[in-house]
Specification:
Elements lengths: L2 H21 L8 H18 L6 H11 L10
Length: 76
């Protein structure tokens, strides 16, 4: 795993954790976009820098390596 791939996997994990927290309470869901915008931008930038944009299979493999306890479905 390259450093850029590691950064991308970590950014995706942060985005996922932020999304879960923001959407946990349905009453706060309408305001979730304001909380999710920065981690989405970070993840997009990191994925592009690592050449992973559009390569979900590789991203999920990397995420699993970084955080094996995190359930990740790999696309077919």
């Amino acid at each position: 795993m390259t450093e850029l791939e590691l950064v991308a996997a970590q950014a995706y994990i942060r985005l996922l954790q932020t999304a879960r927290a923001a959407l946990e309470d349905p009453r706060s869901a309408p305001m979730a976009i304001t909380v999710l915008t920065p981690p989405m931008a970070e993840a997009d930038q990191a994925l592009a820098a690592a050449g992973l944009a559009g390569n979900e299979r590789r991203l999920f493999e990397l995420v699993h390596q970084v955080c094996p306890r995190l359930p990740v479905d790999t696309p077919a």
